Amino acid sequence: MTAIPTPAPVVPGRLEQMSTRIAFFIAGFGIAAWAPLVPYAKARAQLNEGTLGLLLLCLGVGSILAMPVAGALASRYGCRRVLTAGTIMICMALPMLATVSSIPLLIAALFLFGAGLGTVDSTVNLQAVIVERASGKTMMSGFHGLFSLGGIVGAAGVAGLLGLGLSPLQATLVVIVIMAVALLKAGPHLLPYGSESSGPAFAVPHGVVLFIGCLCFIVFLAEGAVLDWSAVFLSAERGLDEAYAGLGYAAFALTMTAGRLTGDAIVRRLGATRVIVIGGALATAGLLLATLFPAWETALLGYALVGAGCSNIVPVLYTAVGKQTVMPEHIAVPAITTLGYAGILAGPAMIGFIAHGSSLSTAFVLVALLLAGVSISGKILKV
């Protein structure tokens, strides 16, 4: 009796590239949709700042726990199924985040939301590595640019809907519809397989994967520092009105998005090594400029330089993970994604601890020194 041969995996082409971009947009759009809802959840559950901070850790814990699981599942069941499941988890959690008032239910909703985000983020980066390699072209920066664009659209869109008088639940229903339409568009061309690499489902990162993960940790730490502390720095240290203190992160996000959307051409022109070296140096100079010079206008310019410098470092590092042979990529990609998320989660807390013992300026200078280390590491890492 003749065995039925297993169909060969579909070789990714333009349609798969398009679906990858949409999936990155979904990831950025989903996480940013939560930001305008935070004050409503805080008021509804009558939380103080300390309790809210602890609850938000549930989101990060859910993400970090889901990432290695998502990599293993994508390897076995394919990126399409895992990305779809992650998106459904996000859509299930959003109405809960918009309505629940009890702390246990809010914890459950944040954990589910974080798990969905971690699942999508980890799996879409795995698909991006496979798709980019099949294309033979530099595409990772453009993929990540769609994540940044989704973040801007999600945050601004939900804020705009709330400003028009929609309730948090109504705003999240609009978000869910948009995500569902995007998923239906991307779904048929998401990869029905994951990494073809063999190996265990889980492993502790080591060798060059650990080195790349540490670089991701630092870059994401810098991003978390600007996200959570730039407004505090501008208002407390530079005397900028609190209503405008968010301009620091806005300047960072704008240049990061622009840098990623144009990043593929930049990487092709400069090469991956120079992108890390120059990008790390630019980010270092920007953070020092923002921290050491007294004018708030200079600080805004500095944060913009940090965004431009950091914009293409992480995409280049994901490409490097796809080329290494030390670990199977279905383990390596979730590993560096997890370390990156750890930087975003741990970074702001570390900065707060240092600022409490010394000053916020000292904390920012230390982050700048770490970014300088990333720049130097670009010459060591062969990409």
Automatic annotation (TrEMBL):
Transmembrane segments: 22-41, 53-75, 82-100, 106-131, 143-165, 171-191, 203-223, 243-263, 275-296, 302-321, 333-354, 360-381
Species, as recorded: Pseudomonas fildesensis
Name used for this protein in its record: MFS transporter
Entry's localization field: Membrane
Membrane topology according to the record: Multi-pass membrane protein
PANTHER family attached to this UniProt entry: BYPASS OF STOP CODON PROTEIN 6, INNER MEMBRANE PROTEIN YBJJ
SUPFAM superfamilies: MFS general substrate transporter
Main location: membrane
GO molecular function terms listed in the Swiss-Prot or TrEMBL record: transmembrane transporter activity
Entry keyword set: Membrane, Transmembrane, Transmembrane helix
Domain Major facilitator superfamily (MFS) profile intervals: 16-383
Annotated GO CC locations: membrane
Any Pfam family the entry gives: MFS_1
